[in-house]
Description:
Layout: H1 2-25, H2 27-57, H3 75-89, H4 94-97, H5 105-134, H6 137-142, H7 146-154, H8 161-190, E1 201-202, H9 209-220, H10 228-256, H11 268-288, H12 290-296, H13 301-310, E2 324-325
Parallel strand pairs: 1-2
Helix pairs in contact: 1-2, 1-8, 1-9, 2-5, 2-8, 3-10, 3-11, 8-9, 8-13, 10-11, 10-13
Organism: Chionoecetes opilio (Atlantic snow crab)
Keywords: Membrane, Transmembrane, Transmembrane helix
Subcellular location: Membrane
Amino acid sequence: MIYLYLSFSLSLLSPSVILTYVNCKKVRWATRVQDLLALTKVFALIVIIVVGLCHLFRGTTQNYEDPMEGTTTYPALLATTFYHTFYAYDGWDSLNDVMEELKDPIRNMPRAIAISVTCVIVIYTLTNVAYFAVLPKDLMLASPAVAVTFGNLTLGVMAWTIPVFVACSISGALNGYTITYSRLLFVSARRGHLPRLLSLVQIENNTPVTSLMFLTFMSMWMFVTSDVRVLINYMAFAGNLMHVVCISSFFWFRVKHPDWPRPIKFGSASHSSYNRPRVLPVRHAVVKQSPEVGKCGPRHPRHWFILCLLIPRPQRTSPKSPQRHGSIF
């Protein structure tokens, strides 16, 4: 059993190590990999959508009869539903962490977020429509991987491509997290919230190597459990907690620092409406899933970010530019 667990952990860790190396070598390599994997995922979803819509046009609509049957309004289950929904749409905020590397961020960042979120909503909604057009509810709930089950029922000899596309999708998400969270740690260290070692930059490729390596080391701790659902629930908790803290800080900054320049402005009503649905899942996780949260808590970069917000920043006496070191590859 221990050998099976080790092989499972190594198979999950290998893509992380490879993507970390790519990010350490060149930022352009990382962005090219991200673009390729994102296009692969979108292509797979378009295939699923087309196949599902073909089934609908043929009159396969029995799965849409009485769609609310078996649903519940129990708050704990609703919180879990929000968990998985927020997790599916997570990633839109990653652009904020690489704002320094954007060209004209004040103009391009709102456009990029608006376009990407709109596309994701449309694609994911149509994908769910396609799933329900082919898979009955009981089969979908019993399936360990809905996309794989969908492919086995509809794609015939090409069903093997779905697991490949799923692997590309996961690798793309992992690469995106590697890019953004390494910058989060890098900036926190540069501002004095974390050890200065994490603010070092590789002098030839201008990449935050130490932050990337530290991030990979921290991700190894996540393999303390082999239950994927536990990891998903915890990732959703970490994301919700960070968003609640960040959005709540807007109200504090507007009262404490009303004169700060704000080139991108949103009303307080939008902040409140965004924050309210996330409070319930966070409370549910703390009350009902505290062992899982406590087990994985110190291992996630988002919690390090929240910790940085709580630690007073020391006075800087050194230059503002990050320290640099020579090539280590």
